[in-house]
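MOLECULE: protein
FOLLOWS: sequence and fold
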Amino acid sequence: MTSRHEATLAEVLESCRPMPLTEPNILKTLLSIQDRMGHVPTNAVPRIAQVLGVSEAQVVGVLSYYPDLRTEATGRHLIRICIGESCKANHGDRVLRAIREYLRAEVGTTTPGGPFTLETVSCVGNCAVSPTVMIDQDLCGRVTPSQIPSLLEPYRL
């Protein structure tokens, strides 16, 4: 971990330190770290556990349970394609294939140079306008394969 990451981690952990007589919130702490650092470094688990006053196993348990928590850095932009039932029924598989072909990347990988990481997600709750693609926090509904280049181009900058 770089010294910049060490400083960021220390700052986040200090803000998440539990108050006396309160239970530590492992999930909130891990989400805060990920928000600031882009991921939760596995080598930070002992320090997180120490600051929160919990076991390393508890931290790893929460970290491994929630699929939105990641232990490796992502690209500058995270693209998540919904593969829920409504999106599947509305040809979300075609959208996924178009994104894979456009980026020349497989699900679970980051494109060379790091602009995009491609993931699937079980459901984003946008079923009325499926198929849905999330780019960072931006929700895009009724996506068609032909829209992929124009949809992703603004994020290439």
